[in-house]
Write a structure and sequence with these properties.
Elements: H1 5-34, E1 39-44, H2 47-55, E2 69-75, H3 81-91, E3 93-98, E4 117-122, E5 138-145, H4 146-159, H5 167-188, H6 190-193, H7 204-219, H8 229-242, H9 250-261, H10 270-280, H11 286-293, E6 298-300, H12 308-311, E7 317-319
Parallel strand pairs: 2-5, 6-7
Antiparallel strand pairs: 1-2, 3-4, 4-5
């Protein structure tokens, strides 16, 4: 693309400054964004894009292009957007916000055009006095959810940077955006939507998992349980299912094992304790049920009080203490 010399000169004049601003902003925000398991993406505008932006006629001061440098913070859901906005404003001063308020929109109900949150912020004076020419430099911060970002990447070339125009392609792109917006709302408002009559249901497996979680919370102290209680409950449910033991019998099983050993061992995980309880409970006939299952695999270690047959080599019993370290 042929770019006018005056525009090239403006670009060459501004780029080194915004390159330095990019490094500084990245140093300030990137680590704070990533420690929250969010994503940080940034860019300095390239010359052709700079020229095209000026030619729109919407840039009042070509030396102060508000998105010469821009970065994007990608968060999991809409509920995280406010936290991300607060993080940005802890370090930079707001110049403008689009949309100005979250409760207003320029779109009609039938439109699904670009409307992600954009903050225009400026660099504050530094007490060190370093790079004083960057003070007051304005840049753009877009805050998107994962779904919004995925859509923008997947459809960007269809809608914006293209050498042709296709009504059907743009139509498809915005149909997808409408579907993703619906999914976004459903994810963010899942707590409330889950009470709706059409989805307020429960299958037996879910009921069993919830019941095991409830029993685990009552039997163990919270610090003895993992954060992922759902996975723990599913693992225990698999053991109970193989042993043909009802979830309602878990309380009795745990109490009997506690009485047998005299305490709840702190060095045994809840899964290991349940497995030990099943293996030691003679009326369960655990060995017989295990051999018959052909599917369930067991994880054991020397810290468990288990029958001798479980300590013998078996293709469906994984003994942590005998696993060789890969070289």
């Amino acid at each position: 693309m042929k770019v006018n010399k005056q525009i090239r000169d403006l670009y060459d004049e501004g780029k080194p400054r915004f390159d330095r601003l990019a490094l500084e902003v990245s140093g300030t925000l990137k680590s704070k964004v990533e420690e929250r398991s969010w994503f940080f993406i940034a860019r300095v505008k390239e010359l052709p894009s700079f020229a095209l932006k000026l030619e729109t006629g919407r840039v009042e001061n070509p030396r102060a292009l508000e998105d010469f440098y821009a970065c994007t913070i990608v968060v999991p859901t809409m509920k995280n957007i406010e936290d991300a906005e607060r993080l940005v404003l802890e370090h930079f001063d707001q110049v403008a916000r689009r949309p100005p308020v979250d409760t207003k929109t320029h779109k009609s109900p039938s439109e699904f055009t670009f409307d992600d949150l954009r903050l225009y912020v400026k660099r504050r004076p530094q007490t060190s006095g370093k790079d004083e020419d960057l003070t007051g430099a304005v840049f753009e911060v877009q805050i998107k959810t994962v779904l919004q970002y995925a859509w923008s990447i997947a459809t960007h070339d269809l809608i914006y940077k293209t050498d042709t125009v296709s009504w059907p392609k743009e139509r498809i792109a915005f149909q997808v955006k409408a579907m993703l917006e619906h999914a976004e709302i459903a994810i963010s408002e899942a707590e409330r939507i889950s009470d709706a009559h059409g989805v307020a249901k429960m299958d037996q497996r879910t009921e069993d998992v919830l019941s095991i979680i409830d029993r685990a919370k009552r039997f163990w102290q919270r610090d003895a349980l993992p954060e992922d209680l759902k996975r723990l409950a599913e693992n225990i449910l698999s053991l109970l299912g193989m042993a043909r033991v009802q979830v309602s019998e878990l309380d009795k099983l745990l109490a009997q094992e506690k009485a047998r050993v005299g305490l709840i061992p702190r060095d045994l995980s809840p899964y290991a304790f349940v497995l030990q309880a099943l293996a030691q409970h003679t009326t369960v006939r655990f060995q017989e049920k295990f051999e018959r299952s052909k599917r369930v695999r067991l994880l054991i270690h020397d810290g468990m009080d288990i029958p001798d047959w479980m300590k013998q080599p078996h293709d469906r019993i994984i003994n942590i203490d005998s696993v060789k370290v890969a070289i």
